[in-house]
């Protein structure tokens, strides 16, 4: 419920533009609350949170519904704001990025304006640089994907 409400608020206040850093400050307290609640819940429910984050990610790729288009930027924003959430989900996320999922991601972002896409790519690079959990796995994935 927390993630669903957070996504709904994220969509209402800028979605992908917000993740790229171009939205107003109105949405910051709500997403900060989502991060705080998830951080608190993570001590006892880390597995459930991880499972839901991954489910949201994969479900959003196969859908053209408006709130699903904002799911990946929303999840990136959560990861930026919470190293704990990033560390919880990043190893399994990397494992799930098989060619069909990468193709879905490509299709998902093909219609995004270039400036927004550059912002999202910048967030991804920032997260990669600040990921310690599964760093070797992530580096191997990047190398294998870039030069199969």
TrEMBL record:
Q: What is this protein called?
A: INT5 protein
InterPro entries with a match to the protein in the record: INTS5 (IPR040316), INTS5_C (IPR029444)
Q: Which GO terms describe its cellular component?
A: integrator complex
Q: Per UniProt, what is one Pfam family of this protein?
A: INTS5_C
Which segments constitute the Integrator complex subunit 5 C-terminal domain?
30-146
Question: What PANTHER family does the entry give?
Answer: INTEGRATOR COMPLEX SUBUNIT 5 (PTHR31697:SF2)
Gene expressing this chain: Ints5_0
Q: Which GO terms describe its biological process?
A: snRNA 3'-end processing
């Amino acid at each position: 419920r927390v993630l669903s409400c957070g996504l709904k608020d994220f969509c209402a206040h800028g979605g992908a533009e917000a993740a790229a850093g171009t939205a107003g400050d109105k949405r910051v307290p709500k997403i900060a609350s989502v991060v705080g609640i998830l951080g608190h819940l993570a001590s006892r429910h880390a597995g459930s949170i991880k499972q839901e984050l991954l489910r949201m990610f994969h479900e959003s790729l196969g859908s053209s519904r408006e709130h699903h288009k904002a799911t990946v930027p929303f999840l990136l924003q959560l990861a930026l704001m919470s190293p704990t959430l990033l560390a919880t989900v990043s190893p399994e996320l990397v494992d799930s990025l098989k060619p069909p999922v990468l193709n879905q991601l490509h299709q998902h972002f093909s219609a995004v304006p270039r400036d927004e896409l550059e912002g999202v790519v910048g967030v991804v690079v920032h997260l990669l640089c600040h990921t310690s959990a599964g760093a070797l796995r992530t580096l191997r994935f990047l190398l294998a994907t870039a030069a199969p």
